[in-house]
Prior knowledge:
mainly alpha; D-Maltodextrin-Binding Protein, domain 2
Amino acid sequence: MELSARNRLAGVVMSVKLRAWLAVAIFMWGVSALLWAVEPVNQTVILATTTSTRDSGLLDVLLPVFEKKTGYVVKTIAVGTGQSLAMGKRGDADIVMTHAPEAEKPLVDEGWLTHRVQFMHNNYVIVGPETDPAQAARAKGSPGQGGSRPAP
């Protein structure tokens, strides 16, 4: 069965498109393989974080796994939120891990920081007898004064 001139032309065009697509796919695969195989120039990542994040023990769990999987070594600098954000803005840190969305947002909006992901927040729990001898329920921001609800 002979193809018409139009069908032969369509076959040639499709063949050219297919070859171009395959060439791009092979090129991208090759680049990916090279990037994966090449050791990073600087294997140290500087993490500016807050003292409360460091003191929580979270980094003690996460960083060894990250370092083992990636080959990077994380140098942690634990300071206040403002100092962590300032380090990020100056370019003195590769990663900034804070928990102050209101302070982070302007730096993201201005392009100083990117890829913001919220992954933690603070909870404060006041523990004591039901008689409340310290009168904590009257404190500003407490559940009795419009704050968070009491724990069950």
